[in-house]
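Run log, item B.
One chain of 413 residues. Sequence copied directly from the ordering sheet:
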Amino acid sequence: MPDDNPPDLVVGGQPLHERFTRQLPALVGQVLIEITRRVPAYRQLPAEALAGDISQVIETALRSFVDLLRTRALPTRAELGFLRESAARRAEEGLPIDVVLTAYHIGVQVMWDSLRPDARPEEIQDVLTVNDLALRYLEVVAPAVGAGYLDARQTMFDDDHSARHTLLSSLLRGTPAEIAAGQAGLRLPPCYLVLALSVAAHPDETGDGVDPVIAGRRKLRRVRAELDRQIRGPVLSTLTAEGGTALLPGPAPVAELTERDWAWLDRVVAGLSRAAGAEITVGAVAAEPAGVAEAAAVAGEVLAVAQRFGRPPGVHRLRDVLLEYQLSRPSAALDQLAGVLEPLSGNEELVQTLAVYLRAGGRRAAAAELHVHPNTVDYRLRRIAELTGLDATSTKDIGLLKAALAARSATRR
C-alpha cells in the first residue's frame, strides 16, 4: 500500500512532481520528437495522428508517471485502460508491437534525462527512488499495452472468420442465408441496401514521408466507425482502403422504400466521405436477402459506369445511369451511335463545349463553367451543327446528341 502522504521527491531543490507538472507540455513535445527521431515507423504516421492521438497518449502516460512520483501509487485501472485502447488502435494501424512498447520506454527516458543535470549530491537517494519507480511503472504499463495490442490483433483475426462474414458470404453467393444469420445471432432484414464503394485516396496516402498503408488503414478504420455510428443494425461488409462491398439493413421491403430512404443513404455516404477525408463513389441497389448476389453484381456495374462516365462522388442508382449503363452493353448500334460525333474528332474543345452545354442546360451556365463568353458558346454550337448536322439547341436533336456523347465515352473507355 502506498503512503497516504509520502515525502516529496526533490531534485534540483524543488519537488519533482511540481517541476514535471509545469514542464508537461514541453515534455510531451520532447517525447514526440524523440519517438519520431528514433523510431522510423512513427515518422511515417500522418501529421494529424502525431499531433492528435499520439500526443494525447504521451500526455496521459506522462501524467500517470508524475502521479506515481507524487503518490507512489501505480497507474489506475482507468489509466491503464486508456493505454490499452491506444495500443489497440496502433494494432489496427499495423504498427509492430515492439515499436509501440519502445515509445513508452523513450517517454520515461526523456523525463529521466531532464532531471539528471540538476540532481545535487544530497538528492542522490531521491534520484535512486525515481529510477526504482520508473522501473515499476514500466513493469505495469508494458503488460497492459501488450495485452491491448494483442487483444485487438486477435479481434481482427476473429472478425475475418466470424459468423457475420459467413453470413455475408452466403448472401453474396446467393445461397440460403437463414442458417448463417441464426448462427450470427442476427435476423435478416426486409431488404438490404447493397453498396459497391470506391474510396479515393486520402491526402496522407500520397504525402511525402507518410506510410500509405498506415494512412489507408486509418482511413478505413474511420469509415467503419462511421458506418457503425450511423447504421442501426449490423452492417455486413468486406472493405479495404480502396473500397469494397457493404450491405446495409433496409427499413422495409424493396417495394416500400421511398425517396426519403434514398435521401438518408445520400446523407450516410456524405458522412462516410467526411470521416474518410476522401471522396466516396457508390453504386447502390436495394434487394431482398435472396437477391443480394445479383444486386451486388449490378451495384458494381453501376459504380463502374458512374466512374467511367465522370459522374461526381456520391450515391448512384441504376436509374441515374440508365443511358450510360445500356450503352456500356455491347450492341451493333453502339459504334454507329458514337460515330455521330466522329466529325468532331480532333477538336476536343467542341466536344467539351457540347457536353457542358447539355449538362448545364443553357448557354450562360455553360459559358460560366467553361470560363468563356456566351457568344463563344453560341459560335461553337453552330460549328457543331455544321459538322454533325445536329443542333444542340433543338429539342429534337438533344436526345440523340446526349446518347452519342455517352456512346463515344463507352467506346473510348
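Observations after the first pass:
- The first strand starts at residue 10 and ends at 11.
- The chain has 17 helices and seven strands.
Flagged for discussion on Thursday.
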